[in-house]
Design brief:
Blueprint: H1 3-15, E1 21-22, E2 27-28, H2 31-40, H3 47-54, H4 73-76, H5 83-96, H6 99-110, H7 120-136, H8 145-161, H9 178-183, H10 195-199, H11 208-212, H12 224-242, H13 249-263, H14 272-290, H15 302-305, H16 311-321, H17 324-340, H18 343-372
Antiparallel strand pairs: 1-2
Length: about 375
């Protein structure tokens, strides 16, 4: 076992003693996702210090009370109070079946609800599958148990958060490239409340289904990776100008399709086109929910445009900032830079670090104000 894999196994063990959410406000535990990205980028030596700080906010795993069964699983989807029952059920699945069979069974069941929990369940699955595939491709034997434990936790959380959004992503008659299709997504009219409320406006948002149908179709599974990578790249580059609409949620517009892309190699080919459909719907929905009226003026983005120029510096900046969303977005943005050579991808990661720092500072100021009263 390599040093990096050993650190990841230790990290998984620590996070498996924590719950999937914290704070009483459905705030997701991003720990396993962030540390997987940190280790993959060569920052394993900082992982345990990061976990020490991050776990201060986390809670113990909830307890189950009403087991999920093969007979009633469909009616239990999207019921967060049963997240522990879901996790127990998926742990039993991975104990009885090879992990690829479990993934192939549950992926199509869960993809229609990818947007639930702002796609955290699917994103967490994408990170562990990425790590597991890399481990299996390595030179030595692999103990898959820690990985499949993380996979079960991830699938269980996704099932508990499962929430479909309006629109049919399979009704695509358009010919637009992903960047063009994203530019045509209308914004929901009221962005003053949380994301679930914003997404609830999609059925009455003018032009939503038309925009959802504008992305060019993929009639062959082999076309899916190309469309997905273009979609990911478009969301990363778009963040530079529009990330101020919602610094955190527009990160998910990039990391959700990235999770799907990373999972494709472990899926049967017949699931690739439906996976693209659901990834596009989730990305478009978050774009509709969180895009501000105006783009940032490029002349005001100089510190980011002239910021980190390498993948290594970009990841170091993100890890120094420390926020889990910043780390995950930088992970995705550096892949976009590798594919496209676009410096704006690295600038977007720098912009994300700034915006989320400002969000954190505003949150602390609000909390301190309440404490003073």
């Amino acid at each position: 076992m390599s040093d990096n894999e050993s650190v990841l196994m230790e990290a998984y063990e620590r996070f498996h003693a924590t719950g999937p959410e914290w704070g009483g406000h459905h705030l997701s535990n991003h720990g396993p996702m962030a540390v997987e990205a940190m280790i993959r980028h060569g920052h394993g030596d900082t992982v345990h210090r990061w976990i020490d700080n991050y776990t201060k906010r986390l809670e113990e795993p909830p307890r189950g009370f009403d087991p999920v069964t093969e007979e009633d699983w469909q009616e239990r989807l999207g019921d967060l109070k049963h997240v522990a029952d879901w996790t127990t059920y998926l742990h039993r699945e991975v104990a009885e079946l090879p992990w690829r069979e479990v993934l192939a069974k549950w992926w199509p069941r869960l993809m229609p609800g990818i947007s639930g929990g702002t796609a955290h369940g699917a994103i967490r699955v994408g990170h562990v599958i990425h790590a597991l595939l890399a481990a299996e491709a390595g030179p030595g034997p692999v103990d898959v148990k820690p990985y499949v434990t993380e996979l079960a936790d991830s699938l269980g959380y996704w099932a508990a958060c499962f929430t479909p959004v309006a629109g049919d992503p399979t009704r695509r008659a358009g010919s637009l490239k992903p960047a063009e299709a994203l530019a045509g997504v209308p914004s929901v009219p009221d962005q003053q409340k949380g994301v679930p409320y914003r997404l609830s406006q999609l059925p009455t948002t003018e032009g939503w289904q038309t925009a959802l149908g504008g992305l060019r179709d993929a009639d062959d599974p082999e076309q899916v990776p190309g469309v997905l990578t273009q979609l990911i790249d478009a969301t990363v580059l778009r963040y530079l100008s529009y990330g101020h609409g919602h610094a955190v949620m527009l990160v998910h517009a990039s990391t959700a399709p990235t999770a799907v892309m990373r999972t494709l190699p472990a899926l049967p080919r017949e699931l690739w086109i439906p996976s693209l459909d659901s990834a596009w719907q989730a990305t478009a929905a978050l774009t509709a929910a969180c895009t501000p009226p105006d783009a940032a003026e490029r002349e005001n983005l100089g510190p980011h445009l002239n910021g980190p120029s390498t993948i290594e510096d970009t990841m170091a900046l993100a890890i120094d900032q420390g926020d889990e969303h910043v780390i995950k977005f930088a992970d995705t943005a550096t892949e976009t830079f590798t594919r496209t050579g676009e410096r704006d991808a690295l600038a977007a990661a720098s912009r994300c670090a700034e915006l989320i720092t400002l969000t954190e500072e505003a949150g602390r100021a609000k909390f301190d104000g309440r404490q003073d009263k």
